[in-house]
Amino acid sequence: MKERYFMQRVCFLLKVRQDKLAEYRERHAAVWPEMLEALSATGWHNYSLFLRDDGLLVGYLETEDFEAAKAGMEATEVNARWQQEMGPFFEALDGARPDEAMKPLTEVFHLA
């Protein structure tokens, strides 16, 4: 019997500060190679960020297990540096790092 393989689709929202939009775009045009490698190695697939002009950031990724993927990144040194640098770009984190503030939205429809 052929084993079926499912990817979890994850979408989340964050808010980038209006005065930081241009720099946020610049930083993501040149993500550190070691950060890209760590994301791939810890199970982040089809990871995309979409930024609206008012600062609304929509993130989307596919993974086998979102909690395991987050934990894998949390264990890396490069992620700690990246999160520290990215923290000041966001509104309303309430003391959390950006990756801790990623709360998945509930999927209500998917065209398969």
Low-confidence stretches: none
Shape: globular
CATH class: Alpha Beta
Mean pLDDT: 93
User: What portion of residues is helical?
Assistant: 25-40%
CATH third-level topology: Alpha-Beta Plaits
Radius of gyration from the CA trace?
A: 15 Å
What share of residues are in beta strands?
A: 15-25%
Using the 3D structure, state the CATH architecture: 2-Layer Sandwich
Total of helices: 4
GO molecular function: racemase and epimerase activity, acting on carbohydrates and derivatives
Pfam families: rhaM
GO biological process, one term: rhamnose catabolic process
Chart the SSEs and their pairings.
Layout lengths: L7 E8 L5 H9 L3 H9 L3 E7 L4 E8 L2 H9 L2 H10 L26
Antiparallel strand pairs: 1-3, 2-3
Give your account of this protein's structure.
With 112 residues, the protein is an alpha+beta fold. The protein has a single domain, classed as 2-Layer Sandwich (Alpha-Beta Plaits). 33% of the residues lie in helices and 21% in strands. The chain is built from 4 helices and 3 strands, in the order βααββαα. The longest helix is centred in the last third of the chain and has 10 residues, at 77-86. The chain starts with 7 loop residues before the first strand and ends in a 26-residue tail after the last helix. The relative contact order is 0.23.
Short description:
This protein is of the alpha+beta class and 112 residues long.
Keywords:
single chain; alpha+beta; Alpha-Beta Plaits; 3-stranded antiparallel β-sheet; 21% strand; globular; racemase and epimerase activity, acting on carbohydrates and derivatives; Rham/fucose_mutarotase; Dimeric_a/b-barrel
